[in-house]
Hints:
The complex is a heterotetramer, with two copies of chain A (326 residues) and two copies of chain C (413 residues).
Chain A: E1 2-5, H1 6-20, E2 24-28, H2 44-48, E3 53-55, H3 60-72, E4 76-83, H4 91-98, H5 101-104, E5 114-118, H6 134-137, E6 144-146, H7 151-163, E7 168-172, E8 180-183, E9 197-200, E10 205-209, H8 212-226, E11 231-235, E12 238-240, H9 244-254, E13 257-261, H10 269-280, E14 290-293, H11 303-309, H12 313-323
Parallel strand pairs in A: 2-3, 2-4, 4-5, 5-7, 6-7, 10-11, 10-13, 13-14
Antiparallel strand pairs in A: 1-8, 6-12, 9-11
Chain C: H1 5-11, H2 13-19, H3 21-29, H4 39-42, E1 70-73, H5 87-112, H6 127-136, E2 143-144, H7 150-156, H8 160-168, H9 201-215, E3 221-226, H10 233-244, E4 249-255, E5 258-259, E6 262-263, E7 283-288, H11 292-306, E8 308-309, E9 312-313, E10 317-322, H12 340-347, H13 351-361, H14 367-390
Parallel strand pairs in C: 1-7, 2-3, 3-4, 4-10, 7-10
Antiparallel strand pairs in C: 5-6, 8-9
Amino acid sequence: MAELQFREALRDAMTEEMVRDENVFLMGEEVAEYDGAYKVSQGMLAQFGPKRIIDTPISENGFSGLGIGAAIMGLRPIVEFMTWNFTFVAFDQIVSNAAKIRSMSGGQLKVPIVFRGGNGAAGQLGATHSNSVEALYSNIPGLKIVAPSNPDDAKGLLKAAIRDDDPVLFLESELMFGLKGEVSDAEDYVLPIGKARIAREGDDVTLVAHSKMYWVAMEAAEELAKQGIEATVIDPRTIRPYDIDAVADSVKKTNRLVIVDECQPFGGIAAEVGFQIQRACFGHLDAPVERVTAKDVPAPYAKNLIEAWMPSVADTVAAVRRTLYM
Amino acid sequence: MAELQFREALRDAMTEEMVRDENVFLMGEEVAEYDGAYKVSQGMLAQFGPKRIIDTPISENGFSGLGIGAAIMGLRPIVEFMTWNFTFVAFDQIVSNAAKIRSMSGGQLKVPIVFRGGNGAAGQLGATHSNSVEALYSNIPGLKIVAPSNPDDAKGLLKAAIRDDDPVLFLESELMFGLKGEVSDAEDYVLPIGKARIAREGDDVTLVAHSKMYWVAMEAAEELAKQGIEATVIDPRTIRPYDIDAVADSVKKTNRLVIVDECQPFGGIAAEVGFQIQRACFGHLDAPVERVTAKDVPAPYAKNLIEAWMPSVADTVAAVRRTLYM
Amino acid sequence: MATPSKSASSHAPKAAASGDGSSNEDALAHAPGQTPAPPDERAERVDAPDETIEAPDARPVAPSPTMPDIRVFRDSGHTHESLGLSGETVVAMYRNMLLQRRFEERAAQMYGRQKIAGFLHLYIGQEAVSTGAVWGTRPDDPIITAYRDHGLALARGMSPDAGMAELFGREGGSSRGKGGSMHFFDAEHHFYGGHGIVGGQIPVGVGMGFACKYKGTGGVAMAFFGDGAINQGAFHEAANLAALYDIPVLLVVENNAYAMGTSVERSRGDADLSKSGYPYGMTSVVVDGMDLFEVYHAFKTIADEARAEGDQGGKPFFVEVQTYRYRGHSMSDPQKYRTKEELEAKKDEDPIVRVKQYLVEHGLATIEALDALDDEVKAEVNRAVEFADASPEPPLASMYEDVYATNDVPYTV
Amino acid sequence: MATPSKSASSHAPKAAASGDGSSNEDALAHAPGQTPAPPDERAERVDAPDETIEAPDARPVAPSPTMPDIRVFRDSGHTHESLGLSGETVVAMYRNMLLQRRFEERAAQMYGRQKIAGFLHLYIGQEAVSTGAVWGTRPDDPIITAYRDHGLALARGMSPDAGMAELFGREGGSSRGKGGSMHFFDAEHHFYGGHGIVGGQIPVGVGMGFACKYKGTGGVAMAFFGDGAINQGAFHEAANLAALYDIPVLLVVENNAYAMGTSVERSRGDADLSKSGYPYGMTSVVVDGMDLFEVYHAFKTIADEARAEGDQGGKPFFVEVQTYRYRGHSMSDPQKYRTKEELEAKKDEDPIVRVKQYLVEHGLATIEALDALDDEVKAEVNRAVEFADASPEPPLASMYEDVYATNDVPYTV
Lengths: 326, 326, 413, 413
Ligand SMILES: Cc1ncc(C[n+]2csc(CCOP(=O)(O)OP(=O)(O)O)c2C)c(N)n1
Ligand SMILES: Cc1ncc(C[n+]2csc(CCOP(=O)(O)OP(=O)(O)O)c2C)c(N)n1
Ligand SMILES: [Mg+2]
Ligand SMILES: [Mg+2]
């Protein structure tokens, strides 16, 4: 096990796959000569050259479509978005083409492409730069969505995503790129897409959270432990397909569920998980499923406002206590 | 009361508002010389002239943004999309600009604009042309979303939307444009945005459905009545804000809820309503909240497949019977 | 200003001190490079090596309004000999155009009988474009187009059976009944759709050309789109990418004069679409799309110029093919936007009639032989209708297939 | 082909019968016009009056490669007299540029002290563009720009207090602390942001020009964007709409040579951005953005040409202003993409130094007076910092305000 930053784990995953398969290439804004806006691709231009590490103009719709066409022709593009906020100008390519072409061709074509970049709020960037897009893309059949919370999962799941024959949206976080963690140094480390990870076991309540929010849930679990409340914490790791069974199995033991989700609440990930669990565990729930989400207003800039806007440890602890009628 | 087609009710609403306020104008593809791809704006060019009934090139992103800029300057644009499927190329304008500019300006600006057009599947059009977009846009604070099921609501709510000072997404249906219904001939007929309509009262179960699906719910209610099951049917009419209290009040009486929603299931409208109701009515529910949605695959073209893909009366009856453990 | 800028800082040292770079540096001395970064910026703060890379000269480019580079393929008086085409080949091309025409005439009929539903956009009148482009390029040069796709699919070799069955929504259809008229695909013949969102296929087509170059196949991709689609941002982004990366791709606008009911004049600031290649430094090509030989010659010529050598070189072209649609936009178009006179005048240029005329005049075939050929084509289309009608509805379970290549299951219920 | 198309049908009657319009009509006789329509098409089936409207001539436009219309504003040797500017006015313009410079120098400093967070994009080096454009147009001509927005906001009259407080995220900020650096707005001064999504403001700016014409205010809108933003589809769609509708709007690309770390040469098929107006039939204007007088003159000239008469007329322009950014893209840019030599050379053209130089040389002000002015500006900026620091954090409840103009409440919990 080596200790790596999240960005290094992503870089290692891409590098290993590019070494393994010459059809894999990386394309995006500032990925090559600038070494990556967030330095995820640092050094990759030097290693692989300009044919495979490609700087693009600011044309997300154009280069997303370009990647889709290249994927249909048998290449395996990794398209980096500086952040997922900027995919709103490429929304049609992802939703109408990447997601639907296989089905509309009756299975004649496949679209093995990875779209990746930072997702969610990243401090005081204001409303245009703070979107959690999984609430939108997870509604779309034909897409797969992965959102890891730590470097180890990031490496194993990005390698899986690059090898996957379907379009995979890979959600990272600017705030986590510097996060360090142990990463398996197994020869060829690939994790399965669609399997949750039980991070912590506790009998009183189940907490589910992905990506950045996983850390909020873990911190809340620590705080709750101090209050004598033991929480199970589940990191779904993948949003589509969603490992609902892992959550249901846990809720059948704890009888309580709180979902921490940075998405805007209406129709977000928490809503879906909550809906499925009330249906799957109706007889087991001792309290309503609770959610902790971003507030239902555009993300504000001011420090105190954005902090209040984000799901917090305090919000999570309070939600858990509600499920315990405390 | 006059009997009007849905498209006529929409036309009357736009015409009345344009007569009332010279700042209102209509812009979109084929709205003027072609008299509307679906004839909603038939005759309006003749009445108002090319300054106020404006044909556009196929540039949804461009003319959506144009409308937003005009709205900020005090005009009241009605932007017609030939269908909402085509708004994926305009997604950024709607989500980053229309929804967020007021908040980011600290309330200095407002964006009084209506975006309208057909939403959802419309027969055998295939995957690119069958999206129910409320599952996506309803996640976005700053937007309002209206989705009427009949000509009377269509008229009263479209007039309200045009007068509203915020961006309103107005969802219609190609399959309903020809639908006839009684429309109030009140002098100035404006309905409040955000209020549900109780269409039918029954003690056994609550059915909630908007737009086209309202008719599926009503037909299912008839069918259920034959089986001795009496359903309350609620048409929320507005998706954002959503009149959850009307649903909760009913569920507290019926103790059962089935949502019929044409959206793809994951994070769709049904998920959100189901989540909120299990939270608000936890002690009142005698069965899990059930949903009937489009199948979680891209819409197929073949007649038998698209019929199986759509939420149906049979699916709805079956879901209701599940909530009754029958 | 009259004063040369260079002199400024020297003549006005204090001014310089107050306004120029040096004081900028002072200000920057306090900049966060030296201070702990707030979280959202930390990511960009990884130490970057100090040496500067060889940067391109950044001096703004002086405007050098060069004359746009436009090539016209029209009235060249080609004969099949001058083009190196055998009589048999021209007859084969004629048959292919006729197949498209008869296929769609029958499809329209079947639509009327409600065997076909949804939208049905007929290509009738534009057949010289599809056939000329296909014969002028290689069978494995990737092709992508919009929803008006029957013609190109059949030109590329899609079987009428599979095409008609797709229109009927049957298991035997090219997409197993899942795509319908707007979403024809035939991977075996390198025909990649059939796309319903106007303009959405253009960047995808550029990506196909990118792949040809990346893999060094020597192929050139063709992205077809309509005169209305050129107003989508996707065209602009894709064209610039194609030019920037020297991608072997032909961006082909089939200018049939209308987007639904909107003429080019009513949709453009300047109706001359051939100007569209200029900002990207791309050569524009204008082609008479009613003349099979012009289209063939144009595509053959530029496709070979466009091809990359291995993974080097390559050159995109912007191609305006001037054609015309004889039928309504879809099956329910009152066509008030054009006069009957205009339509009739265009029908006098019928690309199929012109080829037939040519074959007869040049003694390459007799009227009788060509009429027999027509009967043969009609019979082939009739068989396609029979095949489609006999083909079973897709099994309901197939709805859950072909969504994913792996874990192909409905993810949510 | 050699045979004139007109002759085709006459020479080959049978051919005509089999391939031309008449047989089209036969086929159409079976078309759904006469049959009950499937539900999804019924909508288009409402009976349309039969008479055809006057349709534009649909014959495809022949390529007429006209020389692009480009006007250059550079090295004109203007003096304030030749431009009709009083010495006081030039001093006021100088003061305004200096205000932008000093404001941002202090902002950078405050960012280092973590009083400001998020992204901070400095306009330093581009001040002649904002000041020249604002002085060359009317105070109520709407302006919209991207996230590099402090300069234009201050040029338009936003108070440094409100601007600095916005950067600090305080209640006294121009957007009550909700927008931050990238999202400055000042409706009172007709400054409409401050937009974070590259290119997203361009269609909005065109809409503002549309409104000026619709209302007949005689105003002209200005949409500013970067050389990187021109590669967004939004630019293409907005430019065509502006040209098609004769909208009084200036599409102004501030070409500062780089988009983050990507030079124009590395982002365009053709690096000459002045070619971008051509496809839309739009006049392109190239301006030396380091020269205040050139910018002023250019904007004054074309803005007045662009204005509509009441709700008639109006003419959009594509304007390339060639400028340069002295600082990094944002606060954490190693700037490896350019050489120190290039940067220093550009700093010798400092637009502020040049104006100061001009004022002194033309006896419009003494160095001493200008230094005093600088001290005054610095003091004003210091007061802004004090104001910002003293301004309270926005109340938490304000997060739920300003989302909607009506029913302003959180809709979902
Ligand atoms: C983005 C988008 N907007 C609108 C439509 C609806 N629509 C379908 S075809 C069409 C006209 C396209 O005209 P053109 O590009 O000239 O192609 P043609 O039909 O002439 O072949 C329109 C507006 C669409 N499918 N996609
Ligand atoms: C659609 C979109 N893509 C990417 C970004 C990230 N981004 C912010 S600024 C920038 C560079 C823009 O350069 P340019 O347009 O030249 O403006 P300048 O910074 O030079 O003023 C990029 C890529 C964004 N904000 N929006
Ligand atoms: Mg067309
Ligand atoms: Mg720039």
